[in-house]
Amino acid sequence: MTLKLILSAVIVIASAMIGNIYSMKYAIRVAQLRRLQTALQMLETEVIYRYSPLPEAFKSVALSMKGEIQCIMEDTASMLSDRNGYTIDHVWETALKRYAKSMALTSDDIGILLNLGKTMGSSDADNQIKYFELILNQIREQEKSAETEKAKNQRLYNNLGILGGLGIAILIL
Amino acid sequence: MSVDIDLIFKIAAIGILVAILNRVLVQSGREEIAMMTTLAGLVIVLLMVVDLINQLFQTIKSIFQLY
After folding, report:
1. Is some CB atom of chain B closer than 8 A to the CB atom of A167?
2. Contact yes or no for A167 and B24 at CB 8 A
3. Which positions ≥6 away from A61 have C-beta within 8 Å?
4. Phi, psi angle pair for A103, to nearest 5°
5. What ipTM did this prediction achieve?
6. Where along chain A do its domains lie?
7. CB-CB under 8 Å, B29 with A152
8. Do B13 and A170 count as a contact with CB atoms less than 8 A apart?
9. pLDDT in tens, B19-36
10. Which residues of chain A lie closer than 8 angstroms to B29, CB-CB?
11. Structural domain boundaries, residue B27
12. Would you call A166 an interface residue with chain B, using a CB distance cutoff of 8 Å?
């Protein structure tokens, strides 16, 4: 009897944790989108106002970021400064795709970021400002929808985990 | 009384659980899934009591001698 009780407690705790993991994804996505905005704004400043070349711009943005975004920026910077003849588009895409799996972003978010690589460094400063603004606006929109999704789903998944665990425990008791 | 009381408590617990699940799911705007969980709860409980219902019918049959 005690063993049964202990095991069902383990089941409930485990499924509550699974629910927690699922609900964390929404909060992490919002946080990552916010940090991406900061990163892109810093990148914009580097490119537009300081006129630094892209490898240096990416490197200095990477210095003040952390987590996956830092890794993406560092990878881009190092691949660009290796001078292997890859375009910024290709380098940005490889760096993004390498870390996209471990981030909480959806494929839409990644698509917006990929668009950035296609236009980066390919026109004059005025156009670059426009492109950066466009991408930033799109990311802001994504952040808004991520917020509403978070409000809707975060508590749901928490509750679902606990209740699902209780259900399994009752069924096998 | 050969029906053990545990079964009744189990069914009651499932009922409470399904009710809460229903509330949570409806609140987040997933009426279809809420409906599905309710149905799943019903099916689970029915599976648990199907033996007893069978017994009941057998008893009725034997009482009125409907062989």
Report:
1. yes
2. no
3. A39, A42, A43, A46, A73
4. -95, 165
5. 0.71
6. 2-172
7. yes
8. yes
9. 999 998 898 888 999 999
10. 152
11. 5-63
12. yes
